[in-house]
Design a protein that fits this description.
It comes from Flagellimonas chongwuensis. Keywords: ATP-binding, Coiled coil, DNA damage, DNA repair, Nucleotide-binding. With 550 residues, this protein is α/β, with parallel strands linked by helices. The chain contains 17 helices and 15 strands. The longest helix is centred in the middle third of the chain and has 66 residues, at 318-383. It starts with a strand and ends with a helix.
Length: 550
Amino acid sequence: MLANLSIQNYALIDDVSVSFSNGFTTITGETGAGKSILLGGLSMVLGKRADLSSLKNTAQKCVIEAEFDISKYQLRPFFEENELDYEDTTILRREILPSGKSRAFVNDSPVTLDVMRALGDQLVDVHSQHQTMQLTDNDFQMKVLDALADNSENLTAYMDELDKLRAASKELQKLEDFQADADKEHDYNSFLLKELEDAKLKEGMQEELEEEYEQLSNVEQIMEQLSAGHQLLNDEQLGIVGRLTDLKRAFQGLTDFGSDYKSLYDRIQSVLIETDDIASELEQMQEGVEADPERLEVVNGKLQQLYDLQKKHHTDSVADLIAIREELAQKVDAVANIESKIKEKQQEVDAITKTVDAWAKKISEGRKAVIPKLNERLHTNLASLGMSAATFKIEVNPSKSFKTNGKDDLMFLFSANKGSNYGELKKVASGGELSRIMLTIKSILAEYENLPTMMFDEIDTGVSGEISNRMGEIMQQMSGTMQVFSITHLPQVASKGQYQFKVYKEERMEGTSTHIKQLTTDERVRELAEMLGGKSLSESALAHAKELLQ
């Protein structure tokens, strides 16, 4: 409930702070006194947009603060979702700076205007004649039926399953889209994959082939150089091996004359062994090297195949070609298995659809069952509000598709006069009729839902005394389970409040300002008497005012 409202430097308000209690509170005051300003200030702290015109003194900031007791509203999930500190006593604050910048806070934590508006919608329901168009909204009408049918748990289960259905249907659509696109590319991807598989790609193969190609292409030069090397090492007269052998013999006789000679001899021996080994290897290589035109052609063909593949796939390495091959293999495999995946996903969608359908049917049955009860309640209450001939034609019919609140189409038609044709509310009901219908529906909802603080803004405009008396009684009854405010010009409604506040203007040298105060019993009598008979208080007006309060 709204516990306190503080407004500084807003419109005609300098500084106002007022505390409220639970139950039914009426707010009265002369036309132009500032009742709408008070409501405007509250709307600002509930998330309405603002501008510099809101500031009374444009050199100072405007601050509006509202304190709410939210212990019964089950709003912890909202606070957690928006990373806000939860407090049973929560304070919403709005600041409009002279620069025009606006700031919003919840329990001193900065929030966006959207977050403040979303929270405000759950704290206060501001209802005026121009807002009765909500009554013509199909979702709101369905909400009324669901409240009477106690469909909240069914709707929660339905929405959970509907979310699953939407997710599964989205996945199915992706698979089907993939199949449509993939079918176009499948043959081409298969061709590319076959090319890469035929190449028998493996890491390092390009380097090996290029090396082999160089050897096969230069056989004559290789054989010539190997032969020359072998000749240098093994010539009978000048060969390196023979000369090293002679050197070894020459130093062999010096090994006994000291370690230096022995060391030198060992080094000569080592060089001779290595040189002799090289000579043997040269001889073997000579025997292994031979011209092989056929192999050269094969190697050249494999290299050209690699170069062509690299050019086609815009790469310069076998490793990249292998990666492309694996990617193509996955695409081809995915297309090959897509039909089974689609079938599997379709079965999942069908199974969830049956579950969603079952919940939707249960919700629909509940709605249909309470239509007679709702019709009766509407007729009885509206009759007491001067609309005895008003009747409704309410039908719930199956829809072709799932909606966020079930699988029903709702026909909510109205006739204000006996014998008149039924029509949509927004087309056949007047503003006054819509106000009374909305009040009736809100009073019914109050019995079934934990509604937020209700603020009725001159909803009783244009109705007669007896009807206004009944409207006041309905709001009074609603206040038994919730906090209700009524901004009114009618004494019959004002008198029904447990508490009455008066909004008034004061004119001083520095300007005009709006104030609000809670009236005592005697002040209420005078205020009601003025509302009944004007400023000149007559005994009959005072007596009537006292009678209304009693």
